[in-house]
Every structure is written in structure tokens, then in C-alpha cells.
Amino acid sequence: MPRADRSRGGRPPWDAVLMFRVLVLQALYTLSDDQTEYQLRDRLSFMRFVGLALQDAVPDAKTIWLYREQLTRAGALATLFARFDAMLAERGFLAMGGQIVDATIVEARRPRLTKEEKATLRGGGTPGGWSKARTRQIDRDGRWTLKRGRKAKPPEGSPRQATAEIAVPMFGYKNHLGVDRQHGFIRRFVVTDAARHDGAQLGAVLDPGNTGSGVWADTAYRSKANLELLDRRGLRPEFQRAKPRGRPMPAHIARGNATRARVRSRVEHVFAAEKRGMRLVIRCIGLVRATARITLANLAYNMRRLVWIEGRGVPA
Predict the structure, then answer these.
(1) Which of 292, 299, 286, 297 has its CA nearest to residue 109?
(2) H or E element that contains 135
(3) Within a 10 A sphere around the Cβ of 172, how many other Cβ atoms?
(4) How far apart are CA 192 and CA 196, in angstroms?
């Protein structure tokens, strides 16, 4: 990244490796810039991780923000993710045994808008009368969607048809992942707004370096276009099958879904680690910055998983 001319003096720049370690800590705990600065001053474990001594100065919140912005504008975060993936291959963690694809919603700050303002934003415009400050503070790239869950349990004695599917409105972005079946590392990912359909991103998250032919996914990925895509690439679809409308699930399809679900569960472990363990949310505004945050979270997850896998072979 370009630096200012140092011939006239000024504060020396922070070490790039130290600052990157700060961003990794921030991603592991989903800290704000101000909270990251505070924790670096307060926790000895954080100071040891980044390489600071008790008497050393700590990068402030503005410095952390600026370093992440510079990496984002330079497109360096995607390069760092790819370099870490190459390092995994060098250590013997090759992508083998097939791949699992899925997506999860990452929530962002919900804007308070009128119906007219929402319609204008969906059309790519800016509502009239907005000041520059409001334009900067409202996330115009995130989108609303409905997260559908399991059907609510009907009350005792009510007819079976009375059950209704739980749908929760959510605002933010989607983290589309491709995870290798054997080791559980994130190999490919793409970030979109939350309203994008999961199946439309299949081609972007498929790992061409995976030596296995199986591709596991849920029913959202089963389409004619996706099946043709896998056929062209010589891959075998292992997609879940939906229940026939108005009829019970056939026994042979239920058995096949259960078999595939045991494999697909690995990607749910990734989502649980990021959203429950790391408490991943989006505090920034815009798709570019949200992509940077999610990229760092995916990279931090791979780092922590590598430490866990390699640590299993160390005797107690």
C-alpha cells in the first residue's frame, strides 16, 4: 500500500504484521474499532498475540480503521485469503472428498425507512430530501429477506393444517460458502445482499481444485441450470430433495435426505462458529466494507480450525 512521503518526518507507520494480527483478533471476537483498542490495552493475551510489550504504545481506533480501509481498497483481503488457502495445500490439507455449499444471513444495522424510501433504494436511487449525512449513515446495499424456520408446533387438538412456518424478517448480507468435506476449511466464498437467492451463487463458490466429485447442498440449489453446471464440470450433485406438496415424504427420499444431511452438517458447524462463537454481525455500511468484514471472519475461522486440527496430534 502507498505510504506518505517520510522525508519530512512524521509518526512512523505501524508494522504491517502487527496490524494484521489486530484485525484477526477483531474478527475472532467481532469487536468495534474502539473496543479493539480498549482490549489491546486491557488484555495481556491480546498484547502477546500481536507482539506488544507492556510499555509499548497501542494502535488507536482510527489507525485500525484506516489500515482495514487501505486493505479493502487495495483488494488485499481476498489475496490474503487465497494465500492462506495455498498454505493449507502446502501443509497437506488438500481439498478432497467433495465440497459442501450453503449460505447464511449476516445481520446488519436495520435502517428505519418508509415504504417509499425502500422502493427508491431497491431501484438504485437515492430518496429526495436526504442530506449527505443521512446518505452516509444508511446502508443502501443491504436488503431485507425472510429467514424461514421450522413450523410452529400446533396446539393440542388443532388440525394438522393449522401449522404455520416461522418466518423472521432480517436485514443484512449473505455469506455464501464452499467448504471441503474432508477438512472443513472454507475454500471459496462470495458476499451478496441478503435478498440474493442461494442457488444463483453456486458457480461462484465451487472449488475447481477439489479432487472429489460430490457437491452437497440443500433444496435451494436444485435447479436445471445448476444441474447442467455440475454436469459440465464433471461433478455429482448430492442435493436435498423437497417434500412433495400435500403428500407425505416417500420413505426412500427421506432416507436419502438423511444420508446427505449427515455430510451437510459440517457446513452448519462453520455457521455456528462464526455466528455463535465469533458473534459475527455487520457494523459497517455498504457491500464493500461488509465483504471485508466477512472475508476477515472467514479467514479467522480457517486459522482457528487449522490450529485445532494440528493441535489434536499434540500429546497432553
Answers:
(1) 286
(2) helix 132-137
(3) 22
(4) 7
